[in-house]
Amino acid sequence: MAVQSIPLPPPTSGGKAPRWTQPVSFYGQSVFSKYYAQAICVFLLLVPFLVMPVKAQGQAPVAGADCIPAGSFDANTDYFKNHTKVDSAALFSVDYKKSYKVLTTKSSVTAPQSSTYVLYQCGAPIPDAAQFPNNTVFMSIPVNTVGTLATTTLTYLEMLGKRSAVKVVDTEGLVTSPCVQASLAKGEIKGVEDKDQALRGQELNSVDVVFATFSADPLAANRTVLTFETADPGPLNRAEWLEFYSAFFNLEKDAQERTAKINNNYNCFKSAATAAKSPKPVVAWATFNAPSEYNNNTASWSLSNAAYKKALTEDAAATFFFPGNASLTTQSYADAGAFATALASVDILIDESVVGTDYANVLQNYKLTESSDLKFVKNKAVYREDGAVNPNDGRDWFSTAVAQADAVLQDIIRATHPDALPADTPYRWIRNVAKGEAKNIISDKNCTTPDSNTPIPDIALVCKDMKVDGRPSAATKSTAAAFSVILGLAAIALTL
Ligand SMILES: *[C@@H]1O[C@H](CO)[C@@H](O)[C@H](O)[C@H]1NC(C)=O
Ligand SMILES: *[C@@H]1O[C@H](CO)[C@@H](O)[C@H](O)[C@H]1NC(C)=O
Ligand SMILES: *[C@@H]1O[C@H](CO)[C@@H](O)[C@H](O)[C@H]1NC(C)=O
Ligand SMILES: *[C@@H]1O[C@H](CO)[C@@H](O)[C@H](O)[C@H]1NC(C)=O
Ligand SMILES: *[C@@H]1O[C@H](CO)[C@@H](O)[C@H](O)[C@H]1NC(C)=O
Predict the structure, then answer these.
(1) What is the rounded distance in angstroms from the CA atom of residue 157 to the CA atom of residue 155?
(2) Nearest CA to ligand 5 atom 12
(3) What are the tens digits of pLDDT across the range 479-491?
(4) Contact of 411 with 427, CB cutoff 8 Å
(5) Is there an atom of ligand 3 within 6 Å of 197 CB?
(6) Does residue 178 have a cis peptide bond before it, meaning omega lies within 30 degrees of 0?
(7) What is the rounded distance in angstroms from the CA atom of residue 83 to the CA atom of residue 80?
(8) Per-residue pLDDT reduced to its tens digit, 6-49
(9) CB distance 443 to ligand 3 below 6 Å
(10) Domains of the chain
(11) Which ligand 1 atom sits closest to the C-alpha of 250?
(12) How far apart, in whole angstroms, are the C-alpha atoms of residue 237 and residue 358?
């Protein structure tokens, strides 16, 4: 399978390849819509039956955070009351047994690393290895200590209120989380040793689990869990990896609630964009690949066809521009002139290049000038993904933006249909360089959840509460209307 070129690390990242790996596999568009209306109807119809009291269970309950006390394991007890239901994500699944759960990741890039993880409640016997693939990783849960090799993981852990479990992190120079930066500064979290391999091995093996994306460190392979959130083909797929991480802490219930909120908020933004009065723009996601040792010192220009970018564009009520064969992940051009010609119909350009900071750099990279006839130049609609960066220019686009799909859609709508959002909606990641919008630097000073057991908040607006032009948004109105119809139908059904 073709792997896209990995962007060069920013010069300040200490020369490490950043782990903001591009999507490597496409599993087709998954269905995002969830049938809340149906669920509400079914629930209302079931109300008379739900009030029947459930017969109390005899055995002593074991809470998710506690171990099963020695000598009290009961093979017939179901130790996991809170199950995750995977709705959107395509690249993992969870199968619940009585005292263990089996997590499976699906990606062609795992071998020889395991893609099966057996998580057993602490105090329960380790399940018989013979029933699983050879390289299955067995882990006692809840895990208490965590190491991460990718910054993306940190957002999910912090959303679960588990920054307290994080002990060691790699690529620490790229961390955008303000509170992890603060913990690193205080020494509560350590950056993993890079040179001394013995020490590195010790550090990585000092934690219960090491999360990594795409490839494990061989020094800690037997406790590494490979995650594929950035390859899961859709914004809500990526967000749902919160449920994957939650399984290690028995926090499925919290994760389910959090992803349901994200999904609802996302779908509300989608409705708001669809109802916008402004015309539907054409959006291209473009990259200038500077000459380097990775590309034979030859510059090229390319367009991305990543599934999540297509979904975000379309859900922001815009037209996704990709002139190449739909099966390609990128369309490359060796000539800047040909590239510019191809972009004739594009209204909004999202520049994903690693290099370039201001508008002058961006125009230069695409060999354009401010007098260009291209629509996105005339419209001053040229955006970059570096609106939120750490002091080393590490991009939050590769961290918070992977997990908080609703906030990302809000950001894209700000570019495609600003009239669908309150007038003062700030940007987070996608800044308009043509209009001089600057990078926001996130440092340890920006930490607003110093308690490492407090889940970090969602940074998106609450779409259903937002007021556009001082009035409730169109999305709020249509949601309210749909809800009253449902209540009406349910009321009729109950009286029959
Ligand atoms: C179920 O989730 C709740 C809320 O997170 C938690 O308090 C409880 O311990 C969980 N139960 C189990 C058996 O994991
Ligand atoms: C897995 O185990 C089976 C049976 O023990 C063995 O035949 C096979 O070679 C093993 N495969 C690997 C990749 O180790
Ligand atoms: C995992 O690897 C480490 C270091 O290589 C080793 O010390 C440890 O015993 C291994 N653990 C298991 C369960 O194999
Ligand atoms: C790099 O350029 C040289 C000289 O033009 C060419 O022979 C070689 O095939 C190129 N390599 C790649 C990987 O494109
Ligand atoms: C971070 O804090 C600075 C002031 O210290 C502020 O100007 C900036 O807007 C904050 N950034 C974010 C993303 O909250």
Answers:
(1) 5
(2) 442
(3) 555 555 555 555 5
(4) yes
(5) no
(6) no
(7) 7
(8) 333 333 333 333 343 333 333 333 333 333 334 343 444 444 44
(9) no
(10) 92-254 (3.40.50.1980), 261-461 (3.40.50)
(11) 14
(12) 32
